[in-house]
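Protocol step 4 of 6.
Sequence for Type II secretion system F family protein (Terrabacter aeriphilus) entered exactly as in the expression construct, tag removed. Do not edit the line below.
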Amino acid sequence: MKPLSPAVDVARLVSVDGGWSWAGATAGLLLAAGLALVVAGMPASRRPTLDDRLEPYLRDTPRPSSLLARPAPVRGPFGFGDLLAPYLTRLGAVVGRALGGAASVARRQQRAGQPVDVEQFRAEQVGFGAAGAVAGLLLTTAVAVAQRGLPLPLLVGTVVVGTLGGITGRDYALSRAASRREARMLTEFPTVAELLALAVSAGEGAVGALERVCRLSHGELAGELRRCLADARAGANLPTALQGLADRTGLISLARFVDGIVVAVERGTPLAEVLRAQAQDVREDGRRTLLEQGGRKEIYMMVPIVFLTLPVTVLFALYPGLRLLHLEL
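Step 5 output, C-alpha cells:
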C-alpha cells in the first residue's frame, strides 16, 4: 500500500471503493450524539452550581412550589438547546477570555437597545462560529468531490477561517445594530426637539413637555425618553434620569440636548430657544453628512464606468480595425 503524502487526499480518506461512505459518517454522528446524551445525563454533568445552592438562602420570600411555576421555554428543536446550553456557555466564556472587551460589548448592547447580557452574546458568537465552521467544511467537501482531492491543510484552514468569520461576524452585526439605532435616533431628534420646544413655549414644564411628546411620538428616541420618565417616577430626579439617556448612547447631539434640559431644570433658564437651536444644529449636521456621503458615492460610481463601460466602449471602437488588419494579414 502506497503511504499517504503530507497533503492528505480527503476524498481517499472518506471514500470506500470510489464512493462516499455516508452510512459510516451517519453512524459516527449518531454515536457521537448518543455519547453526548450519556455524558449530559451523568450526575457529574447535572451537578448544581454555586448560584443554585445559595439561591434558597438569599431569597427574601420563600420559593413557591415548582408545580405553580411556568415551564421554561424549550430552546432549540427537540430540546437540543437545553442540552447544548451549558456547553455553549462554557465555550462562550473561553471566547470571552480570548477576545476580551466585555465592557465594549455591554456598551454596544446598550447603544443597540438590547438587554446587557455579555454571556448570552458570547454564546451566540460560539453558535455563529460553529455555523461558519460547518459552512467551511461543506465548501471544502464540495471542492474535494469536484476535484477528486483536497490537501488537509486547506481543509483545516477553511474551517478555521469559517469559525473566525462567524465569531467576528456576530460582533460586527452588534456594532451595525448600534450604529443603525443611533442613526434612527439622530433622524428623530430634530422633530422631537421642536415638539418639546412647542410644548415648553405653550407653558408646559420640562416633565410635562416630555410626557406630552412621549404620548404623541413613536420611535427609538421616544422610547428612551419614556425610559427616562419611568426612572424619574421610580424615584430618581429628572436630571439624573436624563443623564442616563446620555450615558446609554454615544451621540454628542443627545448629550448636548440632555445638558440643555438639565441646565434649564436646575437654573430655570429658557428652554425653548435652546431646543430649537439644537434641532437646527442637528439638521445642519445631517446636511453635511449627506454631502459627504454624496461625495463618497460619486467616487464609487466611477468604478463601474472605468472598469466596465469604458473597456467595452474601447473594445467596440478598436475591434473593427483589428479585425480588418487580421484579414489583410
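Step 6, annotate. The longest strand covers residues 15-16.
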